Amino acid sequence: MLFCLFVAAVSAQISLPKVFGDGMVLQRDIKIPLWGKSTPGALIIAELGNAKATTKADNDGKWMLHFPKFKAGGPYTLKIYEKDKPNEAIVLDEILIGDVWLASGQSNMEWQVQQAKDAGKEIANANFPQVRFFVVDHSKEIKLQPDIASGKWEVCDSSSVKEFSAVAYFFARKIHQDQNVPVGIIQSTWGGTPIEAWTSREMLLTSPITRENTLATDTLTLDREDLVADSLSWVRIWDIVYNPQNNADKIFTATDYDDADWAEIEMPNVLKDFGIGSYEGMVWLRKRISLPESFAGKDLTVSLGHPEMNYSFYFNGKEICKNVWYSDSTHSYTIPAGWVQQTEENTIAVRVAMLWGGGGLNPPADELYITDGNSSISLAGNWLYKKDLEPSFPKILNYQYYPTVLFNSMINPLIPYGIKGYIWYQGESNAAGAYNYRELFPMLIKDWRQRWQQGNLPFLFVQLANYMERKTLPSESEWAELREAQTLTLTQPNTGMACAIDLGEDNNIHPGNKQEVGRRLALIANKMVYKQDCVASGPMFHDFQKEEGRIRIHFNNGGSALLTKDGNKVTGFAIAGNDRKFYWAKAEIDGNDIVVYSDEVAEPVAVRYAWADNPECNLVNSEGLPAVPFRTDDWKGITQK
């Protein structure tokens, strides 16, 4: 046995982590790191273009070397081999030298180009051979991993771009065009995940906020069988979501199906608000409608407004569409004239997946209708619904939410790949603990920078967009407090924030305009990283002073004028006195200041701007970039325990 082990060891093949591959982008202007495994003690020779580097493998076969600094360019070929085994060399081709950015976070960073606004046009025009993506596959582990589960470098074109991060793609495209260098994106994302999952165990143990939960995972049976079972559960869930079970699409869509025992529901609405609660599974909706004679013999158009999640739509038993995460933004579909019954009621059925509390047909009601092009019939009103008509979803353990599990498997294996910096879009999953995010977010930034050992690498991030129902009165907000925690993180060195307070949608946590998000991140990179002379962000609160019955707000405007986005009066400000009760305020632009007041508050002491889940606010600079939400008070918030 010992002899066999010895033979296996001495005949070990040289290998590289999966992040190295054909078509990759390596970071310019730094000593380029390269590492891997081989025969213990072997002399490793690596050649990149005309450069050569050597090193010796340690007793475990691990080795690391660095190439000298390269300017942007390529393509190059990389060749790595053991000195005694030149015929067993690894050869990688089509390598470019440029700028590499790590894109990470939850679903708004993961959201794909094919799910973004104008997806068809964007995909058709995606021809950027010097932009490359490496998408790290999902993986969760309780121990540090030496390599990722899988992934490969892909050239950005119309066939590959649709599944790339939309934010990262639009960021990379602008950087490539503005800086005229190859750009590589390493995308490591997972929707719905908290920041703790992306932070190392060692860093989490340094804070009383996270120490207890991190140590608690040591007592859990997070063995490989559990993790595999969790992954297999998701395989089964998506099988149910994408494939109607037990002929459900034939039975519950039929015009003569007896739905007398189904419950009524008012549409448009979110299903969870109607007695379904936190249910996860497939829900069926049905509605019968009579159409006027004027619709006879015509192709009709149905608009479902804003359906949430994955759904299928049926008309008189025939499938009209199957929406899988993305579709045309209007969610409008054609019903052939031959499928329409004029003398009888027509049956509409919608099969919708309820996941993560979503599912339903969202407002507004006037976007839910059927039309012949001349007149329309509203589909709003009473519908019927029923759950549990198909097999239930298997239990999901959601280990990806646990502390450090994504750092272990989706970040640690990438270290110390040479990068230019990070772009980050996350925070929705930490909104309920927004006050703690003041500490957790800087912890992650410090953690990653220390481990990469490339100094204070630029860390650019997106502030949460506006979302949820708009409130009629000033109120407290978890999302506003999370945005404040993000703004406070700008005190960390070499950080930049793209404000997205005007880009959200009230009924969609994944707003479609990822183009502007990526552009704003790239503006910050152009100014902060590439030292271009440009205005990269909107007005930011600097300080304030009390005047007679008013408060004057001073901004850091970057030399840009204060304006309103729509040309109307300034909106979004609230003001309070010592009673801490806020009222909507009048606000006037006075040069580079805003003067805020209200007839309801004789002696104001505090002002807030865009302080809501989904604020109505319109203050911008002359470049159209929005003012960053802020408050002048430090009163205890709803997430400060």
* Count of DSSP H/I helices: 12
> Which CATH architecture of the domain at 248-387 is right?
Sandwich
What name does CATH use for the topology of the domain at 248-387?
Jelly Rolls
**Oligomerization:** single chain
Distance between the amino and carboxyl termini: 59 Å
User: Percentage of helical residues?
Assistant: 10-25%
What's the β-strand tally? 36
- Poorly predicted segments: 3-11
Q: Which structural class should the secondary elements be placed in?
A: alpha+beta
Share in β-strands: 25-35%
Reading off the top of the CATH hierarchy, the class of the domain at 248-387 is best stated as Mainly Beta
Radius of gyration: 28 Å
Specify the biggest β-sheet.
11 strands, mixed
Mean pLDDT, to the nearest integer, reads 92
Shape: globular
CATH superfamily of the domain at 248-387: Galactose-binding domain-like
Protein name: Sialate O-acetylesterase domain-containing protein
GO biological process, one term: carbohydrate metabolic process
GO molecular function, one term: sialate O-acetylesterase activity
Keywords: Hydrolase
Would you mind describing this structure in some detail?
Residues 99-212, 418-522 form the Sialate O-acetylesterase domain. One of its GO terms (molecular function) is sialate O-acetylesterase activity. This is Sialate O-acetylesterase domain-containing protein. Keywords: Hydrolase. InterPro entries: Galactose-bd-like_sf (IPR008979), SASA (IPR005181), SGNH_hydro_sf (IPR036514), SIAE (IPR039329). The chain is α+β, with helices and mostly antiparallel strands and 641 residues long. Among the domains are: 248-387, Galactose-binding domain-like (Jelly Rolls); 540-631, no CATH class. It is 19% helix and 31% strand. The protein has 12 helices and 36 strands. Strands 1, 3, 4, 6, 7, 8, 9, 10, 24, 25 and 26 form an 11-stranded mixed beta sheet that branches. It is globular, with a radius of gyration of 28 Å. The model is unreliable at 3-11 (pLDDT under 50).
